[in-house]
Task: inverse folding
């Protein structure tokens, strides 16, 4: 297990663990980037929700834009997390 997985096992709340597991299943299936990005966004949302952040004003691209500067070229606005 990786150090992050060890920490998730001990400290991670259920929604974050579920989001991590879902993202890992998608990442391991060698997805197209446009299929992997929403899974990553879902993981970020789960982490932020656990920290009591209100993301109701954010769409999928807003969080991903922090890491993928050209996200608008890869993921349409209407794509849900």
Result:
């Amino acid at each position: 297990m990786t150090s992050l997985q060890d920490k998730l096992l001990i400290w991670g709340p259920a929604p974050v663990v579920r989001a991590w597991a879902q993202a890992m299943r998608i990442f391991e299936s060698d997805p197209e980037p446009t299929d992997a990005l929403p899974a990553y966004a879902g993981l970020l949302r789960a982490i932020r929700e656990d920290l009591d952040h209100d993301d109701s004003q954010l769409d999928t691209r807003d969080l991903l834009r922090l890491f993928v500067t050209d996200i608008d070229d890869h993921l349409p606005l209407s794509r849900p997390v």
Remarks:
- Residues 34 and 75 are 6 Å apart (CA to CA).
- The helical segments are 3-11, 14-28, 33-50, 60-64.
- The chain has one domain: 3-73.
- The radius of gyration is 13 Å.
